[in-house]
TrEMBL record:
Official protein name in the record: Threonine/serine exporter family protein
Membrane-spanning intervals of the chain: 115-135, 141-161, 173-194, 206-227, 234-256, 268-288
UniProt entry keywords in alphabetical sequence: Membrane, Transmembrane, Transmembrane helix
UniProt entry tagged with the keyword rRNA-binding: no
Length: 305
């Protein structure tokens, strides 16, 4: 369910309403407002308010962004997620949870792929817990560390960036992935320097099994990200557990020296393959479920012009 507010130049609200009704939205409310912007005078605007099901919201936003009259410098919209919606259609229609607007998925992931001191701190602290749990082979600490690693958001960001052809977004996701991987690796080294060997945790499983698991998790993670009812935090734990253990293990073993170089290289290759497979599976899922980037690219290009 979505509540959408669109602000347009005065007189353009009726065009937005036409698009909304054409996409199957049952009703729209148009009101007048005055925009006060710093350094500029007052500007009259139309304000269009919509309340609709999630899939209709996706269709409407994509149609609006591609409409010939749409101008990113004079139009704006916000989308909210209400707890309930009793409007012009029965609950079985209004509560349909999939698929979320591409703009929702895009901006949610953007928050997770921005490299900030908070991201660095969360990743490093979580990775320390993960690495220490691996040294002691203590599952509760391993899980505690995995819970706060935002690893799967970076991989989904790479996939969505590829589908939408928004290359700056994809680059930001790739940067976040590299930074997080290095921090997990460094956390493993730091833990190994203060904890006595041996490492009791054993990294098991064949490369083929890892590839299959990465593909399954990639599909599930992408589906969860476009579904209002998706348990994204649980899927994230699965993705994080499957992949982020590798850089922590390599960091620990470089200090402990318990594994030969061939084994370290093998796990490094497994890590890179799993990253690629998970991102690829998510890319395919986003493509098949209709995630579109033309409107987002038009918005960014319009603001930069």
């Amino acid at each position: 369910m979505r509540l959408i507010t669109v602000r347009t130049p005065a007189g353009e609200g009726k065009e937005v309403v036409k698009i909304a009704l054409a996409q199957g939205i049952g009703e729209a409310v148009v009101s007048m407002a005055t925009l006060h912007r710093a350094g500029e005078g007052e500007v009259s605007q139309d304000v269009v308010d919509l309340a609709t099901a999630t899939p209709l919201a996706k269709q409407f936003i994509e149609a609006l962004l591609e409409a010939p009259f749409y101008n990113p410098t004079t139009f704006s919209f916000t989308i909210r997620h209400p707890e309930s919606l009793f409007g012009s259609k029965p609950p079985k229609d209004e509560a349909h949870p999939i698929a979320r607007p591409t703009t929702d998925v895009y901006q949610e992931l953007y928050q997770f792929i921005k490299v900030t001191y908070s991201l660095a701190g969360r990743v490093f602290i979580s990775a320390v817990l993960l690495a220490y749990g691996m040294v002691e082979n203590f599952l509760p600490i391993i899980i505690a560390g995995l819970l706060f690693l935002p690893f799967h958001h970076h991989l989904l960001g790479i996939a969505l960036g590829g589908v939408t052809k928004e290359w700056r977004f994809l680059g930001q996701a790739a940067l976040a992935l590299v930074v997080s991987t290095l921090l997990i690796f460094l956390a493993g080294i730091c833990v190994a320097l203060v904890c006595e060997p041996p490492m009791l945790f054993e990294l098991k499983g064949s490369m083929l099994a890892g590839i299959v698991l990465a593909a399954v998790i990639g599909v599930a993670a992408a589906l969860a990200s476009i579904d209002d009812a998706g348990r994204r935090e649980l899927i994230g734990l699965a993705a994080t557990a499957h992949i982020s253990i590798y850089p922590a293990w390599i960091g620990l073993q470089l200090v402990y020296g318990e594994a030969d170089s061939h084994k370290i290289v093998e796990h490094l290759v497994s890590f890179l393959i799993n990253v690629g497979v998970l991102s690829g599976a998510a890319f395919l899922t986003y493509t098949l479920t209709g995630m579109k980037g033309s409107g987002i690219r038009r918005f960014i290009k319009g603001l930069a012009a």
